[in-house]
Amino acid sequence: MTDGSDTPKPAAAPKKRLTRRELERRRLLIRSFGLGIAAVTAGLVGWYPVYKRLFDRLRPPGALDEREFLAACIKCGQCVQVCPVEAIKLADGDEGYGLGVPYIDARAQACDFSCDAVQCVLACPTGALSHEIAHKEEVTMGFARLSRPESCLAMKGEGFKGLARGYDFEGLLRYEEIDRWDPQPVASYPYDLEICDLCVRECPIKGAISLEPMSDDPADKRRIPVVHEACVGCGTCEMICPTEPASIIIDTELTLEAQA
Amino acid sequence: MKWFLHKLAMMFGAEGRKASASEETEAAREMKKFKKTPEQVIKRKEIIDHEHQYPLVSNKWRNLRWLSIIVINAMFIVSFAWDVQLVEGSMSASRFLGFHMADPNAALQVFLAFKELVLNLVIGTVTVVLLWWIVGGRAFCSWACPYHLLAEWAEAIHLFLARKGWVKDHPFHRGLRVVLWVIFMALAFLSGYTVFEYINPVGIVSRALIYGPTVALVWVIFLLGFEIFFSRRFWCRYVCPIGLTYGITGAVAPVQIKYDLEKCVHEGECRAVCLVPHVLEITKMGYASDTTEYIGPDCTRCGLCVDACPQEALTFTVRGLDKII
């Protein structure tokens, strides 16, 4: 660089050579710009799984509509901590903006309302689990659906004997007749049923599901589980269903239709 | 006041500079003049030589701070693991003995994305802001943040490798943090998702500690690797919007690091260890505005400079209280 600042510059000035300091500075700015772009891009990656709806998660009781829920959740996990059956899990990074957001894998551990007072709703600091809900009957997580009628034991007129999910199943359920306050392992409770009615028997919501005869013939032992309006989608039926995979599952989409 | 605004501007990315004649006190001017007299220059050189010959190593504040980070995070962990209900939740929001606490940065994002004000969150945020305002805003970073501890260890590796000449620090512009803060807040508002939380290592680490490891930790490992091999403490220095939010929170905090111009021999040990060296620009010869001054809003009150300074020119103090005693 020349120091002739008072000499008029020619129109087509030769390319100015930068000093080391200026070069460093320019590099720093370019680098910073790159980092800024990279950070924002990394943040936007999380949008993809949400946009593509790669995951259809059953959210805890009281959860707002999915979009609002993701906006309102602060990802603290207080709902996880209060759940007596530890039904609530936090999602991992593959769920995009769902990272750290609670969900319930009903087949592994359903929300059986062992807590009575929807503790997760009370624990939520942001209202992502809406505080308008105070009773389990008001919950609308989803709706049970007999997704595999062909495998349903009741529909085949079969009974069930033994452990609903095998000896190594870790899920808990409130068996009121044993201990109202302490949920018991499903694996510790063998059944002996003439007709399998586990989904009806263990449903924590009154009048949400019933077994109806499939014909007028009194000798016909076949029964069909019918889900009623009262179903809140807690997933207890999905957890307890002894067929593999479960004959009855929770449909999160059905709630949306029901709400609309 | 003008000098304080300059320090505030430095938090937002402005370069450090000397105090101008109008910002300088009479006493500071006299002191600087005295320090430049030949006998003082020689004396300082002797002191520095002596220091280098007999280095004093103190890790008092660092050890206290590491203990603080570990205890705070352990309280979260045991609260869930043993169900003792001490601090339920994680770094983004929690209940301390039943009282709501919320990370102001996360709360702000939720507010912008959700567009509804929830009372619990307001209470939690105000509580946290008040608490951290007292101890100095960004004190959250160095005394509570779990990522900070990991980053300090990564920094130690980086410095080791740098001494060997195997890696080189690539600094970024500090203004980037402000730009990203604005972008992420705008994204939360426009998209309706708390976008930053997706890449927030503080939340990821905190949740992993409490609820068990996740695949998302790979991101944190990547960030630490970037800090080790490419840019020293880049996340805390140039990216993290949480740090900026806490910095604003504690801009005029009572707990401060006080600089004593008279004791300082200007050898720069403090700037070498500092996470935010621009706050220590005043320790350069001729930069200070007064004979004693607080080092500024972006300071994390980590105490590394206090430990590093052999002259005790930098000390912890409580604003106002130091004048009474």
From TrEMBL, chain A:
<dbReference type="InterPro" id="IPR017896">
    <property type="entry name" value="4Fe4S_Fe-S-bd"/>
</dbReference>
<feature type="domain" description="4Fe-4S ferredoxin-type">
    <location>
        <begin position="222"/>
        <end position="251"/>
    </location>
</feature>
<keyword id="KW-1133">Transmembrane helix</keyword>
<keyword id="KW-0408">Iron</keyword>
<protein>
    <submittedName>
        <fullName>4Fe-4S ferredoxin</fullName>
    </submittedName>
</protein>
<dbReference type="GO" id="GO:0051539">
    <property type="term" value="F:4 iron, 4 sulfur cluster binding"/>
</dbReference>
<dbReference type="InterPro" id="IPR017900">
    <property type="entry name" value="4Fe4S_Fe_S_CS"/>
</dbReference>
<keyword id="KW-0004">4Fe-4S</keyword>
<dbReference type="Pfam" id="PF12838">
    <property type="entry name" value="Fer4_7"/>
</dbReference>
<keyword id="KW-0472">Membrane</keyword>
<feature type="transmembrane region" description="Helical">
    <location>
        <begin position="28"/>
        <end position="50"/>
    </location>
</feature>
<feature type="domain" description="4Fe-4S ferredoxin-type">
    <location>
        <begin position="60"/>
        <end position="93"/>
    </location>
</feature>
<dbReference type="GO" id="GO:0046872">
    <property type="term" value="F:metal ion binding"/>
</dbReference>
<feature type="domain" description="4Fe-4S ferredoxin-type">
    <location>
        <begin position="100"/>
        <end position="134"/>
    </location>
</feature>
<keyword id="KW-0479">Metal-binding</keyword>
<dbReference type="InterPro" id="IPR050157">
    <property type="entry name" value="PSI_iron-sulfur_center"/>
</dbReference>
<keyword id="KW-0411">Iron-sulfur</keyword>
<keyword id="KW-0812">Transmembrane</keyword>
UniProtKB/TrEMBL annotation, chain B:
<keyword id="KW-1133">Transmembrane helix</keyword>
<dbReference type="InterPro" id="IPR051684">
    <property type="entry name" value="Electron_Trans/Redox"/>
</dbReference>
<feature type="transmembrane region" description="Helical">
    <location>
        <begin position="117"/>
        <end position="135"/>
    </location>
</feature>
<keyword id="KW-0411">Iron-sulfur</keyword>
<dbReference type="GO" id="GO:0005886">
    <property type="term" value="C:plasma membrane"/>
</dbReference>
<protein>
    <submittedName>
        <fullName>Ferredoxin</fullName>
    </submittedName>
</protein>
<dbReference type="GO" id="GO:0051539">
    <property type="term" value="F:4 iron, 4 sulfur cluster binding"/>
</dbReference>
<dbReference type="Pfam" id="PF12801">
    <property type="entry name" value="Fer4_5"/>
</dbReference>
<feature type="transmembrane region" description="Helical">
    <location>
        <begin position="64"/>
        <end position="82"/>
    </location>
</feature>
<dbReference type="InterPro" id="IPR017896">
    <property type="entry name" value="4Fe4S_Fe-S-bd"/>
</dbReference>
<feature type="transmembrane region" description="Helical">
    <location>
        <begin position="208"/>
        <end position="230"/>
    </location>
</feature>
<dbReference type="InterPro" id="IPR017900">
    <property type="entry name" value="4Fe4S_Fe_S_CS"/>
</dbReference>
<keyword id="KW-0408">Iron</keyword>
<dbReference type="Pfam" id="PF00037">
    <property type="entry name" value="Fer4"/>
</dbReference>
<keyword id="KW-0004">4Fe-4S</keyword>
<feature type="domain" description="4Fe-4S ferredoxin-type">
    <location>
        <begin position="291"/>
        <end position="319"/>
    </location>
</feature>
<keyword id="KW-0472">Membrane</keyword>
<feature type="transmembrane region" description="Helical">
    <location>
        <begin position="178"/>
        <end position="196"/>
    </location>
</feature>
<dbReference type="GO" id="GO:0046872">
    <property type="term" value="F:metal ion binding"/>
</dbReference>
<keyword id="KW-0812">Transmembrane</keyword>
<keyword id="KW-0677">Repeat</keyword>
<keyword id="KW-0249">Electron transport</keyword>
